[in-house]
Amino acid sequence: MKIRVLGCSGAIARGCHTTSFLVGDSVLIDAGTGVGQLTLEEMARIDDVFLTHAHLDHIAALPLMLDAVAKWRQSPLRVRALPQTLDALRQHVFNDIIWPDFTRLPNPARPFVTLHPFACGDVVSCGPCQIEVLPADHAVPAVGFSVEGGQGAWVFSGDTCGHPAFWERIRQLPVKALVIETAFGEAEHELAVRSRHLSPTSLIEQLRHLGTQPAFPIHITHTKPSETADIAAQLQALEQQAEHPVGWPLTLQWLASGDEFEI
Ligand SMILES: [Zn+2]
Ligand SMILES: [Zn+2]
């Protein structure tokens, strides 16, 4: 089963789209502006959207996508997230002010979208894959996900400053690839701490939880276009340190829109 990167940027610019991954044909993880990479036909095939959290860069395309494909769909789109994230959608998006209340339209018995809460540790079967909800620590309630197909687990940190239980679970899973954020450069390390994101040095601190050199690649995501070059240079400098603070040779990969994983 394929996972396709639709967007992995921390902000927008030409060619840069915010977080969204297409899992197989029918599942989305996050609904950032990357969703705009899909054709109408591809969008109409999506039955489930798993959200890491309520921040705009991860939900921006959800109301627009619903509007785009509403008349093509026979059944409601299922949105799955923490209860707090679903409450935020009800209060601040589908509130008949920012956007029509698609949880009650076109009629309450058969709406365009239904909302389904999950909790950390839950495993949801979705088509050919199983999606496990992993803990994250962010400015609002947030999670990461492990998507397990026949060939291993693809793990996404979501927005986070790191969570010990996330790493504990990673050490148990058959991880094939880890996608982890590094949203801020070192110049904004304090802002990263306050907004509960990672910077290059705090990423290294988190990777120490792996204990030994992992057998899977680590892909960096969620850099803002204006900071991507600085963050890349800072991570490269960290990779080249002789006495490596992480305890093993660090090799990182850069996630790009259009990348695909097979799991
Ligand atoms: Zn966020
Ligand atoms: Zn974000």
Describe the structure.
The protein is α/β, with parallel strands linked by helices and 263 residues long. It has a single domain (2-262), classed as Ribonuclease Z/Hydroxyacylglutathione hydrolase-like (Metallo-beta-lactamase, Chain A). It has eight helices and 14 strands. Strands 6-5-4-3-2-1-14 form a seven-stranded mixed beta sheet. Strand 10, helix 5 (164-170) and strand 11 form a beta-alpha-beta unit. The longest helix has 12 residues, at 228-239. It is globular and about 65 Å long. The termini are close together. The mean pLDDT is 96. Residues 55, 57-58, 159, 222 line the site of one zinc ion (ZN).
CATH topology: Metallo-beta-lactamase, Chain A
Number of strands: 14
Helix percentage range: 10-25%
Query: Tally the helices: what do you get?
Result: 8
Distance between the termini: 5 Å
Indicate the proportion of strand residues.
25-35%
Order of helices and strands: EEEHEHHEHEEEEEHEHHEHEE
Judging by the overall fold, what is the CATH architecture? 4-Layer Sandwich
Overall outline: globular
Strand order of the largest sheet: 6-5-4-3-2-1-14
Ligand set: zinc ion
* Count of distinct structural domains: 1
Structural class per helix/strand content? Answer: alpha/beta
CATH superfamily: Ribonuclease Z/Hydroxyacylglutathione hydrolase-like
Radius of gyration: 18 Å
Main beta sheet strand tally, sense and closure: 7 strands, mixed
Q: What is the overall pLDDT average?
A: 96
